[in-house]
Amino acid sequence: MNDKPTLFTNARLIDPASGRDERGALLVRDGLIADIGPQVGVVADAEVIDCKSQVLAPGLIDMRAFIGEPGAAHRETLKSAGEAAAAGGVTTIVSMPDTSPVLDDPAIVDFVTRRARDTSIVHIRPAAALTKGLKGQEMAEIGLLREAGAIAFTDGLRSVTNAQVMRRALTYARDFDALIVHHVEDPDLVGTGVMNEGEFATRLGMPGIPREAETVMLERDIRLVRLTGGRYHAAMISCADSVDIIRDAKVRGLPVTCGVSINNLALNENDIGDYRTFLKLSPPLRHEDDRQAMIEAVADGTIDVVVSDHNPQDVETKRLPFAEAANGAVGLETLLSAALRLVQAGQVSLPNLLRSMTTRPAEILGLPGGRLERGAPADLIMFDPDAPYVLDKRDLRSLSKNTPFDEARLEGQVTVTMVAGRIVFDRRPN
């Protein structure tokens, strides 16, 4: 924490929680927002940062990121993930339990929480396993894991195919007001599929994954939510039919929310091109019509959150034939820039986009951040939404470089990232 206050002046203040979008200043003192508005008094001993009309907004909250540590630190450590997040404007990461050992024991959750606190420059909040060993057969100790610091419960990249196990988990989680986050993909319908089922997959000679692999699982889960009343979050949806299912569930007043990967918003199946394995993902990149449906759902609020789905993979798992390569792409550093494509195209307003990456994740997870108001945590980002650059994967701070946006022309760069009142990333010229 800085010893003296920090005053951001000449900023475009965007607070999705209150609808604020105005020119003004913001004062940070003791790790909290002390004052905000068009008129903020000069503080004699404050460090002054002239934003030069750049956007000042709450730090991004990424609800889905895979980190190798413990067990696969060569792919990503808590420290490197924090550095990558800070460069991308992400001030809070929800880490997935797909580690070795799996985060299905309170002692391991406690270890990761402490390790992240000691080594990461951003907040890292672990999600614990929903079932023991991520095997989908026996429910994990939700109550004890929650006491140890787990912020949500999920089997990460795996789906719980046993409906009775999912029913019990939702029922048990309801009593603790715990959040169940589920990867909606039926593994039997996925089968040997490696990309979206359709004409393009046929032309590439690749086995496809039907949209029904997602919608069948999602439909089942919604019915179980209606049966149990448990809080449920579909980790990532990717097709238009899923949007309709979520929208209907919300109309009926069910405690259901959902997310979408930035990859499914910014890319479609055609981007795979000549078997680009960095674009082999789960869920797969879909048809352009599905991508447009995802964008519309973010704009109207049906989709609650946008996530990076950060999943670092090393060279050995990606430099393989497409069908054999591992799923996943890094995304912490490119989340904001890739999402700003939607703003630049006039498809989503900047406040609405930021809401899906700040306020809504905070509300769903019960976190104090995601807003600009007096007394809120000083987790902030300053960024220029129009700053152009070409991404070079060698410049990424992640240990793994498997980005789908390598050599892409992007706009929007983070200038300053502040966590708990301390500047952890600074791109301002000297």
Task: Lay out the secondary structure.
Blueprint: E1 6-15, E2 20-29, E3 32-37, E4 47-50, E5 55-58, E6 60-65, H1 78-88, E7 90-95, H2 106-119, E8 123-126, E9 128-129, H3 142-148, E10 153-154, H4 163-176, E11 179-182, H5 187-190, E12 195-196, H6 199-204, E13 208-209, H7 212-228, E14 231-234, H8 240-251, E15 256-261, H9 262-266, H10 288-300, E16 305-307, H11 315-318, H12 335-344, H13 350-355, H14 359-365, E17 380-390, E18 409-419, E19 422-426
Parallel strand pairs: 1-4, 1-5, 6-7, 7-8, 9-10, 11-14, 12-13, 14-15, 15-16
Antiparallel strand pairs: 1-2, 2-3, 5-17, 17-18, 18-19
Helix pairs in contact: 2-3, 4-7, 7-8
InterPro entries: Amidohydro_3, DHOase, DHOase/Allantoinase_Hydrolase, DHOase_cat, Metal-dep_hydrolase_composite, Metal_Hydrolase
Function: Catalyzes the reversible cyclization of carbamoyl aspartate to dihydroorotate.
Pathway: Pyrimidine metabolism; UMP biosynthesis via de novo pathway; (S)-dihydroorotate from bicarbonate: step 3/3
Structure in words:
It is a single chain. This protein has 430 residues and is of the alpha/beta class. It has one domain: TIM Barrel (Alpha-Beta Barrel). It has 14 helices and 19 strands. The strands form five sheets. Strands 1, 2, 3, 4, 5, 17, 18 and 19 form an eight-stranded mixed sheet that branches. Helix 2 packs parallel to helix 3, helix 4 packs across helix 7 and helix 7 packs parallel to helix 8. The longest helix is centred in the middle third of the chain and has 17 residues.
